[in-house]
Amino acid sequence: MCLLSKGSRQYERRKWRTLTDAGKMMRPFDVLFDLAEGKVNLLGNRTVRRYSDVKHIFHEIDPKLERENPIIYEVFEAPIAEKEGDLMFLITLLYPGRVKNEFFMTKGHYHVFENTAEVYLGLKGKGLVLCQTRNGDFESHEICPNKVVYIPPYWAHRAVNTSSELLVFFGVYPAHAGHDYKSVEAEGFKKRVFFENDKICIR
Ligand code: M6P
Ligand code: ZN
């Protein structure tokens, strides 16, 4: 019998071990998040990307952000091993703001196993998902609450917060997919999203 109190660090550590132990069959689990309360911990890894981590993806350097080094986005993962058969799910918080006049965005990536898709579900705020293939096809799709964006296999993807509030979205993809950032760093995305003349401009 588990005598650890739910929510305690020990309990969470035990739960994490149970979910990821190699060779063991996973047990079903559930996890509750509460956006209103700002509780989005999905029990797995948390990745925080600050301006200094991602400044190279933006068109220009912003001296103010250089000084302040704010968080641009955070990703809360579920405790799922990166293996075929499983699904990773996560919640991304993409903060509002701009680097000069370019909206805050995620690094963007292809999947290492490129024939794997991903689904985003908007939970809060408003933004765009930029999608691109290696042969130069490009699309942008709005993400907002109640909207699902389907990213098929072979499409790189990047989220952009085009609003003045926090953008929150849920994502799920085959857990073994992997993140290929190098290709996006080398090629860039065909289009960027700016705030120009009081308008959102994709160019
Ligand atoms: C979404 C998913 C994650 C990704 C995150 C941040 O939540 O696509 O897999 O890690 O966005 O995007 P990136 O890794 O490109 O910085
Ligand atoms: Zn992905």
Characterise this structure.
- The protein has 203 residues and is mainly beta.
- It has a single domain, classed as Jelly Rolls (Sandwich).
- 14% of the residues lie in helices and 36% in strands.
- It has helices at 9-20, 51-54, 63-68, 182-187; strands spanning 46-50, 71-77, 87-94, 98-99, 102-103, 110-111, 118-124, 127-132, 138-143, 148-151, 156-161, 167-174, 179-180, 193-196, 199-202.
- The longest helix has 12 residues, at 9-20.
- It starts with 8 loop residues before the first helix and ends with a strand.
- 26% of the residues are buried.
- The structure holds 6-O-phosphono-alpha-D-mannopyranose and zinc ion.
- 6-O-phosphono-alpha-D-mannopyranose (M6P) binds at residues 75, 90, 92, 106-109, 118, 171, 179.
How large is the share of residues in beta strands? 35-45%
* CATH top-level class: Mainly Beta
- Total domains, how many? 1
Outline the biggest β-sheet. Answer: 6 strands, antiparallel
Q: Which small-molecule ligands are present, each listed once?
A: 6-O-phosphono-alpha-D-mannopyranose, zinc ion
Tally the beta strands: 15
Strand order of the largest sheet: 1-2-3-12-7-10
Based on CA atoms alone, the radius of gyration comes out at 18 Å
* End-to-end C-alpha gap: 59 Å
CATH-wise, what's the superfamily? Jelly Rolls
The number of helical elements comes to: 4
Question: Helical residue percent?
Answer: 10-25%
Which architecture would the CATH scheme give at its second level?
Sandwich
Structural class: mainly beta
Overall, the morphology is globular
Mean pLDDT: 93
- CATH domain topology: Jelly Rolls
**SSE run:** HEHHEEEEEEEEEEEEHEE
Low-confidence regions: none
